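Researcher: Quick test of sequence recovery. Tokens follow.
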């Protein structure tokens, strides 16, 4: 609650250019805004793991750079292999925020893009069928699971 009060007080201060006489009305407005924001907030069914964040951020940055370099090389070197494919990847993450986050981050892997979600299967468009898509997706999924403090079950076969 104190954090919300501080944010709304700062917002009030900015909106009123710090005018001292505005705080007479501002105190009530700040309390009302903080109360309404608490009443309207949605319960959060997930949380982030600090350890998962510390592992995911460097992974994300490295994969983003690798993906950018890969696409750039392919654009300027037509001789590089291009074997587009649609790859079906069985998801272990449960439906919800972590799964949606995974779908939105698949594109950071070199030559990949989320194409469709069919139940518990993710359809990924790949630029090069020789890339280890399954391994890369499993690795990404494990990083996302750790980020959200989730444990993944095993894979069959």
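Model:
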């Amino acid at each position: 609650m104190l954090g919300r009060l501080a944010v709304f007080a700062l917002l009030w201060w900015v909106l009123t250019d710090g005018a001292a006489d505005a705080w007479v009305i501002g105190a009530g407005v700040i309390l009302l805004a903080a109360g309404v924001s608490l009443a309207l907030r949605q319960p959060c069914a997930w949380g982030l793991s600090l350890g998962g964040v510390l592992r995911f951020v460097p992974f994300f940055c490295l994969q983003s750079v690798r993906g950018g370099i890969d696409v750039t090389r392919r654009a300027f070197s037509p001789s590089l292999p291009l074997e587009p494919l649609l790859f079906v990847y069985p998801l272990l993450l449960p439906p919800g925020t972590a799964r949606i986050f995974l779908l939105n981050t698949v594109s950071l892997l070199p030559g990949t893009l989320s194409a469709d979600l069919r139940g518990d299967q993710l359809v990924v468009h790949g630029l090069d069928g020789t890339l280890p898509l399954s391994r890369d997706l499993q690795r990404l999924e494990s990083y996302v699971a750790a980020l959200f403090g989730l444990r993944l079950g095993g894979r069959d076969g």
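The longest helix spans residues 50-76.
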